[in-house]
Amino acid sequence: MNLKTAKRWFSWHKWTSLICTAFLLLLCITGLPLIFHEEIEHLQNDFEVETVGGKQKMDLDRLAEIAESKNPGKHVRYAFWEKDEHPNQVLFDVVEKPDAHFEESKYILINEYTGEILNEPENEGFLYIMLRLHTDMFAGIPGKLFLGLMGILFFISIVSGIVLYGPIMKNFDFGMVRKLKSKRLQWLDTHNLLGIVTVVWLTIVGLTRVINTLSDVVLGLWQQGQLAEMTAPYRNEKPPEGKLSSLNEAVKAAEEKVPSMDVSVVAYPGTPFTSKHHYAVFMKGNTEVTSKLLMPVLIDAKTGEITDARKMPWYVNTLFISQPLHFGNYGGITLKIIWAIFDIMTIIILITGLYLWFARRKSEIRSKKLLNQRDHAK
Fold this sequence. Notes:
Number of helices: 11
Mean pLDDT: 88
Shape: elongated
């Protein structure tokens, strides 16, 4: 690599890194507790619900009525299940209108066997603040897209860093840190070493970060594509009036349609994940990977009959896979600890990068002052 090319790559690495560093520090710091969000939530809300001998689960319609009775004038729009983490429990999202903003949601966690209200989680607290800062900085879709742009700059800084590191290490041992040299060189070697050790992880987390920021775009594509095709026969029909068909029967029909999968989410008619005419029962697999993927089964909200069921398109599945991968949510606590270690190493990389830039800047200013003094002396 000639000097001119090296300078160009160095310029790319310096400026892309500097522009995104502050935001990457924010993402790394907020991401650290989010890696262990399941464990933290479990400690905060430890509700062990045991089945009562021989007793059956209550009818879902009755459970939904209990949730609505806690919030008069509001109605259920989503029901969630996490059978592995929170068995025998269902979480209802209750709002005034199906298209209400998620911050207007009231959540009711209910024991499926007894109908007992276990908790009423709120959109607040430490983990909620960390999640919002990490996903959109409390700025909604513009915040997501901005962080996605920072992710792209981060990826460019990784590529440029690899290009610069390769030729340098031809003359040195891999992983060397020149402890007998200046402090600045020690920090440079530490920065380079941690960068190359974490490069694969940084690339994975950086790219999944960009993909995750496009979640609203992906939802829009799915709504206009597959969902529109699945609900096309109902396009010119009026939405059902009065009481909807049974939620309980809708879930049973979906389970019979796809017996190898478990129910994960039910979206009521009028929500963004279905039409005004259908329940959407989202089923998930029972392996580590397939449990992250969802398959929609549409149920006519007037007749209770299944009208369609399809696997999600590739771009939606890519999003589903990238979301847990971003937080290391695939291999249990061991992988999460590894993710946390790499996260801390990344924070050190970012801090050393800032230090090197300030040190270099200070050195350049000092050199210019010396040159000016010499010129005046002449």
